[in-house]
Amino acid sequence: MQDQPKPDARETPTGAILRVLRVSLHVGFAVLLLVAVVRLLLGAGGSRTPLSLGAGLVLSGALALVYLAGTFLEKRHANSPDAFDPAPYARWWLAAVTLLWLLLLLVSSDFAWVAFPLFFLQLHVLPRLVALPVIAACTFLLIGALWFHGQGSADGGLQLAMVLGPVFGAGFAVVTGMAYGALFREAETQRRVAGELLRTRAELARTQHEAGMVAERERLAREIHDTLAQGFSSIVLMGRSVGKAMDAGDLESAKGLLKVVQETASANLAEARSFVRGLRSPDLAESGLVATLRGLCEKTETEAAARGTTMRVRFQLVGAPVDLPNAFQTTLLRAAQASLANVWKHAQARAAVVTLSFLESEVTLDVFDDGVGFEPSTAAHAVRGDGSGVGLSGLRERLAALNGSLEVESAPGEGTVVAARLPLPEAVLLSTSSLA
Known about the structure:
Blueprint: H1 13-42, H2 50-79, H3 90-107, H4 115-125, H5 128-149, H6 160-247, H7 251-276, H8 282-287, H9 289-306, E1 312-318, H10 326-347, E2 351-358, E3 362-369, H11 376-379, H12 391-401, E4 405-410, E5 416-423, H13 426-435
Parallel strand pairs: 1-2
Antiparallel strand pairs: 2-3, 3-5, 4-5
Helix pairs in contact: 1-2, 1-4, 1-6, 2-3, 3-4, 4-5, 4-6, 5-6, 6-7, 6-10, 9-10, 10-12
């Protein structure tokens, strides 16, 4: 009955060695006991009486049953921790095994060799300071038993082999048992470390999952603010204009406004489907960045006119366009959408200009308006009760994710410039340089 590491599906090399040693110990004990019983039945090694035969068979059977019961209970508990734990009774079990072996020594000297696997058990179950004296005492009794049974032989007396054999055997058992103990402690350490690693990995997976959820919520929040929220705001304002036109009896204007509402709603639906699937903007997929920005300017000017506001919105392209990654195109488009939405909501501007510039190592997007302006330091972190006012911070987060930056220049009465800058990816730089 031995304390063993709990089995693990990922058994370590040390654990495999320990398992082989434990199996070898049990098999060795069984083989030596069986050999001794066979020799007792054959009457080898000396005279045999019916009394000694009967006592030997009974004691051998008892020893086998006690040993098997202890190892079976220990193995069952190792496989199922809820089962009976025999560990508190291990020393009593070892005492019973040792006592039965000593009684068998009185019957026949053939049972002497069972002592060697027994020494391993004593060294493993008992504390070292107790195990060593117990092993020494058992070795002394073993030598005495060999001498006792050798009295009737021709040589008689105490022979050197009767001393050296048990002493060297006990020494070998002690050294091997200590090595086994060291391996056992190492296996326990490895098991604890493996358990800690599994717990740490589970915690890391949970943390990564939560971080992914937070990042996805932030992505959806930015997409909703820059697309759906802007579109819904436009629909609400134009819906009010439709109501005013109908009240005034101007059905033609009402029809024109309703057409713009339908187009805006359709665009919003397409955007919603695209970012839920994690895809690029449908306008970018169809037309590319330059054409999409030009169309955005025309659409913003049309919507302003539909609301009864005169605002001219122009698009300018500087430099030769290059093929940008999807993330870059989407970020620049969202920057233009959010900036233009702020213009028609708050700036009271008569004109706005969107400039897309392809420079040597970066791409920039500048949105200028001649509106009322504002104080950037007071508006940078202003979040309104209706959930609006997060556009600038959302833009900064988008750009920062791509190593870009956002600058806002404005003052009351002097208009506003929103400047977004993104460094060109290395792959884009290499492709442009090879073309040059």
